[in-house]
Write a structure and sequence with these properties.
By secondary structure, this protein is of the alpha/beta class. The chain has helices at 16-27, 39-47, 66-80, 103-131, 142-146, 152-172, 190-195, 198-207, 216-227, and strands at 7-11, 31-36, 56-60, 85-88, 134-139, 177-184, 238-241.
Length: 249
């Protein structure tokens, strides 16, 4: 198992892409610590985990609260002593025309999707710097790479996460810490299904060259590659997992 003895933190592990990522990393022997606001969902992720593989634990985390992020990081380091990998997978979206957005929505999107990831990353980095090793994978979105109608503020936060990834990768390279980014396209998650109409779903199936929506496991396997030993010489990269929908550099 390629991640045996690795301590990996995954935010958003209660559902969707985060949950699939927890499952894939634990299947490779990692000890995974979930951070999520939805503790009931996190417990379900733990309960569904088969025995004989890596361990999964969870602590409640509100990424919009600096105090919550600080307490979460302290708990993880107290329990495990170090962090070998961090997957910033948690995030949210609300589709609607930019001109009609409530500015409070912008603030919440920035707080959760961008600042939450930045705060948590800063708090776990000292452990990685001391070890002169570590892997960070940020889950952004193709909305942040190419834009997306009805998701302007969301795309802005995800574009910021891409820029954060690239800049941090340059700063951390001297410590042998890899920082990369995965950008899912349309993915069959609870968040997507809560907001996508049947018409939008059909339109996407026609536009995606592979003729299907992404599954959370598709994204999780990309994370597995970037956080595992096979990506030791990969840093500052943005990997789109979109079934070919967004073929741009």
């Amino acid at each position: 198992m390629e991640l045996k003895d690795k301590i990996i933190v995954v935010t958003g592990g209660a559902s969707g892409i985060g949950k699939a990522t927890v499952q894939v990393l634990a299947s490779q022997g990692a000890t995974v610590h979930i951070g999520d606001l939805d503790m009931a969902g996190a417990e379900r992720t733990i309960q569904e985990h088969p025995g004989g593989q890596g361990e999964i634990t969870a602590t409640q985390l509100d990424l919009a609260s600096a105090d919550s992020v600080k307490a979460f990081a302290a708990k993880v380091l107290s329990l495990h002593g170090r962090v070998d990998g961090l997957v910033n997978a948690a995030g949210f979206d609300k589709v609607g025309p930019f001109i009609k957005n409530d500015p409070e929505l912008w603030e919440r999107l920035v707080a959760v999707n961008l600042l939450g990831a930045m705060r948590l990353t800063q708090l776990v980095l000292p452990s990685m710097i001391e070890a002169k090793a570590g892997k960070i994978v940020n889950i952004s979105s193709d909305a942040g790479r190419v834009g997306s109608m009805g998701e302007t503020a969301y795309a802005a936060t995800k574009g910021g996460l891409i820029a954060f990834t690239k800049s941090l990768a340059r700063e951390m390279a001297r410590y042998q810490i890899n920082v990369n980014c995965v950008c899912p396209g349309p993915t069959d998650t609870p968040l997507f299904n809560a907001q996508a109409s049947e018409g939008l779903r059909e339109a996407l199936l026609s536009a995606i060259p592979l003729r299907r929506l992404g599954q959370p496991a598709d994204v999780a396997q990309a994370v597995r590659y970037l956080i595992g030993p096979n990506a030791d010489y990969v840093t500052g990269q943005v990997l789109s997992v979109s079934g070919g929908l967004t073929m741009v550099g």
